[in-house]
Amino acid sequence: MHVVTAEEMRRIDFDTIQRIGIPALVLMENAGRAVAEEIIGMAPQVGRRWLILVGKGNNGADGLVTARHLLEAGVEATVVYTVDPASLTGDAAVQRDIAAKLQIQAMRYGIDTLDWRDYDGVVDGLLGTGSKGAPRHVYAKLIEQANASGLPIVAIDIPSGINADTGEINQPCIRATKTVALAFKKRGLLQFPGAECAGEVVVRPIGIPVGLADEHEVTTFELNDKALERKLAASSALRRAPDAHKGTAGHVLVAAGCRAYSGAGLLASTAALRGGSGLVTWAAPAALVPTLVGHQPELILVPVSDNGQGDWDGTSIQDLLKLITGKQALVVGPGMGRWNGDTEWLREVWESTTLPLVIDADALNMIADAPDFPEWRRREEATIMTPHPGEMARLAKLPTKEVQRDRIELTRRYAAEHGVTLVLKGARTVCATSHGEVYINVTGNAGMATGGSGDVLAGLIGSLLAQGCSAAQAAALGVYLHGAAGDRAAAKRPSTRSLIAGDIVDEL
Ligand SMILES: NC(=O)C1=CN([C@@H]2O[C@H](COP(=O)(O)OP(=O)(O)OC[C@H]3O[C@@H](n4cnc5c(N)ncnc54)[C@H](O)[C@@H]3O)[C@@H](O)[C@H]2O)[C@H](O)CC1
Ligand SMILES: [K+]
């Protein structure tokens, strides 16, 4: 489940070839056979006439190996060279010579006539992890024609045109039906917009002894990024350590909601119940409480003295801090609104409690407005911040599109700098721990971009903290379960558009 950058992949390849001694041609043979096997599985539905687009590097060489294995399986394979085959070097030249000896049908793009109607499917062996910037001339034209052909495209390693590390798209970019990721998923396959060009992503081993070298691989290569898939979410790495239970089912305190946004508090608190906490106390401005009674009888509703308007403005912080006794986690922010002095108010909460803390929504904006946030006490206790891209832009003082450009590195940097666990929401939510581990979520759908969805996540994460999860476990598991619940809710509807946050709570 590790997710790697192009550079990490090159280091692993190099170590496998140079230190362990598995020749590159062996890895390449395994790569090409794996891609061929995926295509052979598709051939009955798609058809048996495949066009293999071959670039000048090892991605293209993989394509030549794929062609050979397809032909052995009785699938027609025709090679299209983007460059003069004579110019190929190294392992690509070796594969070229083998293909020539086997008289594999080959043509030169731009010189021979290529009629896409003669084929059922396309293999993208143009650009892999060696790609830099936008596909140039011949590659660009070939990518545009392949996309326009309407034929299913199987991309080798990554769709040509995406940035393997950030998921940025350099137009034109192959829109793949399926991407066969070699050995590990590349980061760009898990971050939009690259993720939407990848189609179905399958990881195929190519002979790199990952399993055997697990300890070695993590230590030597400092591989810190993992895809949050079912296997990982269910694994011991994210299951609560048995002794963490301490026999408590956990009691969460939620400080949330104001007259304008009382629903946010209800969603966050109810999600905390659904997340498995035994008890959930929702602290809300006093004037609001009478209107909230009975909505969710399982909740403990506690008024915090306010200005009589049902807002947090003028509430007594002592009232809130008194409630902390006997709780195992505190969620602050959903639907709280803003008021004069709110940043100082939050700093006092942040510094005076040692409870595991979830900071969401308006509480994040309070931090974004704090002139001296780096001077706040560096909390050793679990502290999880859950911004959406807009809130992250304010926190990091960057334009939102800059936040989205390289979500993984930005999240990792901010988390390490401030000693917090950071959850950057959005398609493929990124969780980074304060010591540099990153989890990229693969559950969830566009229907979850709906009011209150973030409140549900904050309550759920608080609930997991209260039940003994570490910050990393609570953030990663919370994000995974939140998205999985959203997927279950979406599956029950004709379209994701009608999804509302309460549906996610119901599916938890
Ligand atoms: N041992 C290994 O490393 C293995 C690698 N595998 C496959 O190899 C590719 C990576 O191959 P590499 O030769 O490094 O580069 P590419 O084939 O991805 O790049 C092609 C080539 O094209 C030129 N180029 C780069 N950017 C552009 C651009 N924007 N437009 C046009 N041309 C461009 C540049 O000269 C490159 O050299 C990896 O993805 C795997 O598919 C094996 O699978 C396993 C062993
Ligand atoms: K490719």
TrEMBL record:
PROSITE patterns named in the record: YJEF_C_2 (PS01050), YJEF_C_3 (PS51383), YJEF_N (PS51385)
Cofactor(s), names only, from the UniProt record: Mg(2+); K(+)
Signal peptide residue numbers: none
CDD domains noted in UniProt: YXKO-related
Catalytic activity: (6R)-NADHX = (6S)-NADHX; (6S)-NADPHX + ADP = AMP + phosphate + NADPH + H(+); (6R)-NADPHX = (6S)-NADPHX; (6S)-NADHX + ADP = AMP + phosphate + NADH + H(+)
Domain of life, source organism: Bacteria
Keyword annotations of the record: ATP-binding, Isomerase, Lyase, Metal-binding, Multifunctional enzyme, NAD, NADP, Nucleotide-binding, Potassium
Gene3D superfamilies: 3.40.1190.20, YjeF N-terminal domain
Domain YjeF C-terminal: 229-508
Molecular function terms from GO: ADP-dependent NAD(P)H-hydrate dehydratase activity; ATP binding; metal ion binding; NAD(P)HX epimerase activity
Record note on cofactor: Binds 1 potassium ion per subunit.
Record keyword Cell membrane present: no
Chain ranges of the YjeF N-terminal domain: 9-214
Binding site for K(+): 59, 124, 160
EC number annotated for this UniProt entry: 4.2.1.136, 5.1.99.6
InterPro entries: Carbohydrate_kinase_pred_CS, CARKD, Nnr, Ribokinase-like, YjeF_N_dom, YjeF_N_dom_sf
Binding locations of AMP: 425-429, 454
GO BP of this protein: metabolite repair; nicotinamide nucleotide metabolic process
Protein function: Catalyzes the epimerization of the S- and R-forms of NAD(P)HX, a damaged form of NAD(P)H that is a result of enzymatic or heat-dependent hydration. This is a prerequisite for the S-specific NAD(P)H-hydrate dehydratase to allow the repair of both epimers of NAD(P)HX.
Family that this chain belongs to: In the N-terminal section; belongs to the NnrE/AIBP family. Belongs to the NnrD/CARKD family.
Quaternary context: Homotetramer.
NCBIfam families the UniProt entry points to: yjeF_cterm, yjeF_nterm
Name recorded for this polypeptide: Bifunctional NAD(P)H-hydrate repair enzyme
Provenance organism: Paenibacillus cremeus
